[in-house]
From TrEMBL:
This is Ferredoxin.
Length: 77
């Protein structure tokens, strides 16, 4: 990996905190969809979707702006 490449990230949703407000799905529409109740679903059907490098700023915004503090980003090891 070159120093100019950012490490891959994955998005964790804490389901005990999430109340389905949907802000994350608006900030990450190519990564997240909503279920019938407004809760986020990964479009790739994984529990912790990978975040492409070009979406890292949007993912960080989603984490920072989540009103229930239900989102965290983790390195994809």
């Amino acid at each position: 990996m070159t120093s100019s490449r950012r490490p891959a990230l994955r998005l964790h949703i804490d389901w005990t905190r999430c109340d389905g407000r949907g802000l994350c799905t608006e900030l990450l529409p190519t990564v997240l969809d909503r279920d019938d109740w407004g809760y986020p679903l990964a479009r790739d059907h994984t529990p912790e979707p990978d975040i492409p490098a070009h979406l890292h700023p949007d993912a960080r915004d989603a984490v920072r702006l989540c009103p229930r503090l239900a989102l965290t980003l983790h390195p994809n090891n």
